[in-house]
Amino acid sequence: MAVTLQADPSLAGFNCYCTRAEANEYLLEKRLHALTAWEAVTNKDAALLWATRELDRLNWDGYRATSSNRHEWPRSGIADVDSDEIPDQVKEATAELAYYLAQADRTIQTTQEQFTEIKVGPITLKPRESSTGIDLTSEMPDSIRGLVKRFLGGFQASGINRNLVRT
Q1: Which pLDDT does position 140 carry in this prediction?
Q2: Are 51 and 43 a contacting pair, CB within 8 Å?
Q3: Which residue has the higher pLDDT, 115 or 136?
Q4: What is the pLDDT of residue 164?
Q5: Strand spans (E) along the chain
Q6: Taking the CB of residue 97, how many other CB atoms lie within 10 A of it?
Q7: Tens-place pLDDT, residues 84-129
Q8: CA-to-CA distance for 31 and 25, rounded, in angstroms?
C-alpha cells in the first residue's frame, strides 16, 4: 500500500514535516555531493516519513498547537515561530535525516566503532560520546540535532524524550 506524503499541517492526513521537493531542494543547496545518493533512493517518501517519526522523539520546547495532531509540530510557545508553521530548520532536519536513514539499514546492530572500550569478562561496553555529550549509539546524528537545537528544550537524554521518575 502506497503512502502519500502530506506536509501541510492544516490538512487531514498530515504525516511529514517536508515535501519531497523541499528535501530535494535542501539536498541540492546544502549537500550537493549527496544529491546523487539521494536520487538513487527508491522510496524517498518512506525515508521522509521515517525521519518525521524520528524527529517526533525529540524533546521539543513549547507544546503542540493542536491536540488532534499526532506529530509534534506545529507547536505553540516558541519565540518567532507561528503556531501553524513548521520552521525551515525542522524541514531541513527532516530532509537531512531522511538522507541519513536511507544510506544504510539503520535497523541492524551497531558496530564496535561506536565504543571506546569493549571488554569480554566481566562484560564492559563504553559508548563513545560526541562533542555534545550525546552517546553515538543514538539513532540521530548530532548534525541533525544541530539544525533544530534552538527548538529543543527540557531534559535531554540522548535527544529522546524520557520520563523523569523520582525514587
Answers
A1: 74
A2: no
A3: 115
A4: 46
A5: 63-64, 75-76, 115-119, 124-127
A6: 27
A7: 999 999 999 999 999 998 887 655 555 555 556 565 677 665 555 5
A8: 10
Q: Considering only CA atoms, which of 166, 4, 18, 8 is closest in space to residue 92?
A: 18
Distance, in Å, from the CA atom of 139 to the CA atom of 54, rounded to the nearest integer, reads 8
Amino acid at 69: N
> Is the model's pTM score more than 0.85?
no
Tell me the per-residue pLDDT of 54-88, one tens digit each, with 9 for 90 and over. 999 999 999 999 888 889 999 999 999 999 999 99
Please state, in angstroms and rounded to a whole number, the distance separating the CA atoms of residues 128 and 117: 8
Residue 154 CB neighbour total at 10 angstroms? 11
Please say whether the beta carbons of 127 and 115 come within 8 A: yes
DSSP for 80-126 reads T--TT---HHHHHHHHHHHHHHHTS-TTSPPPGGGEEEEETTTTEEE
Return the pLDDT at 116.
Answer: 60
Interatomic CA distance for residues 5 and 19, integer angstroms? 7
C-alpha cell at 32: 550537493
Question: To 10 degrees, the CA torsion angle through 101, 103, 104, 107?
Answer: 10
Cis bond upstream, residue 122 (ω within 30): yes
Written as nine digits, the cell of 137 is 549509539
